Amino acid sequence: MTLSGVITLLLVAASLMAAVAEAEAADVFEPSQADLDRVAAMLRTTMLPDAAAWRKIADRPDMREAVTRAEPYLTAPLPELTDDLYLDYSKTGNRRRCEAVIGERRGRLPALVIAECVEQRGRFIPALDALIRAICAEKSWVLPAHDGNLQTFTGELITIDLASSLLSWNLATAYRLLGDRLPAETRALIRSELDRRTFEPFRRMCAAKQSQAWLRVTNNWNSVCLAGVTGAALDALENARERAWFVLAAEHYSRYALQGFSPDGYCDEGVSYWNYGFGHYAALAETVRRATGGGIDLMKRKEVVMPSAYGFQIEIVPGICPAFADCPVNAAPHPGLVDYLSRRFTGKGTLDAPRSITGALADQVMAIFPDEAPVLRPETPWPKPDPLRSWFPDHSVLIGRPAAGSACRLSVAMMGGHNAQNHNHNDVGVFMAVVGNVAVLPDIGAEVYTRRTFSLQRYASKALNSWGHAVPVIAGKLQRAGRNAEAKVLQRDFTPERDRLVLDIRAAYDVPELERLERAFVYDRTGTGRFTVTDTFAFSQPGAYEMALLTFGTWKKLDERSLVVTDGGESARVSLETPEGATLEITASTVDEDLTARRTATRIGLKIVEPIASGKFSLTITPEPKPTADGRRHVAYVAHRGESHDAPENTMAAFRLAWERGVRTFELDTHLTADGHLVVCHDADTRRTAGVSHVIARTSLADLRKLDAGSWKGAQWKGEPLPTLADVLTAMPGESAVWIEVKCGPEAAGPLAAAIESAGLTPDRVNVISFNADALKAVRSLMPDVPMHLLSGFRRTDDNGWQPTVPQLIEQARVLGASALGVHFAGPIDRTSVEAVHAAGLRIGVWTIDDVRTARRMLAAGVDAITSNRAAWLREQLERDGT
Question: DSSP of 51-99, one letter per residue?
Answer without folding.
Answer: HHHHHHHTTSHHHHHHHHHHGGGGTSPPPP--HHHHTHHHHH---HHHH
